[in-house]
Amino acid sequence: MSEVVLYRCHTPTNVLCPCGAVARRMGKLGIDYRTERVAYRRPDRPEIVELTRQNRVPVLVDGEEIVHDSKRIVQYLEHAYGGERNKPADGGSRMETDGNA
């Protein structure tokens, strides 16, 4: 299975922003994923521009699939991982890294 990466802002909680809404849904669905925190300033996000030709987060990379916009990401997650047959047996986990590394 391919690695799932969530590019998101530096907001420290999953309550205040669209990035957090995506992270909460991924947790609810039990998806294993890695978090990459991007720069606060939009002009300082070349990795996001390279992926999507725009500079906003969240952005989800699931293998060859690249999805941006929190609502579209949630729809994608529900379609790709929403069924019981798609959930990992161990309940999933996440690993967080600093995008400035």
Number of continuous helical runs = 3
CATH class categorisation: Alpha Beta
Uncertain regions spanning at least 5 consecutive residues? none
Q: Please name the CATH topology.
A: Glutaredoxin
The arrangement of helices and strands along the chain is EHEHEEHE
| Structural classification | alpha/beta
Number of separate structural domains: 1
Largest pleated sheet: 5 strands, mixed
Work out the strand percent: 15-25%
Assigned CATH superfamily: Glutaredoxin
Helix content: 25-40%
Quantity of strands, as a count: 5
Coarse shape: globular
- Record the strand order, biggest sheet: 4-3-1-2-5
Distance between the termini: 25 Å
* Averaged pLDDT: 86
Question: What's the helix and strand layout?
Answer:
Layout: E1 4-8, H1 18-29, E2 33-37, H2 46-52, E3 59-62, E4 65-68, H3 70-81, E5 94-98
Parallel strand pairs: 1-2, 2-5
Antiparallel strand pairs: 1-3, 3-4
Helix pairs in contact: 1-3
Task: Report on the architecture of this protein.
This protein has one domain (4-90): Glutaredoxin (3-Layer(aba) Sandwich). Helix content is 31%, strand content 23%. The chain contains three helices and five strands; from the N terminus they run E-H-E-H-E-E-H-E. It has helices at residues 18-29, 46-52, 70-81, and strands at 4-8, 33-37, 59-62, 65-68, 94-98. Strands 4-3-1-2-5 form a five-stranded mixed β-sheet, sandwiched between helices. A hairpin with a 2-residue loop joins strand 3 and strand 4 (65-68).
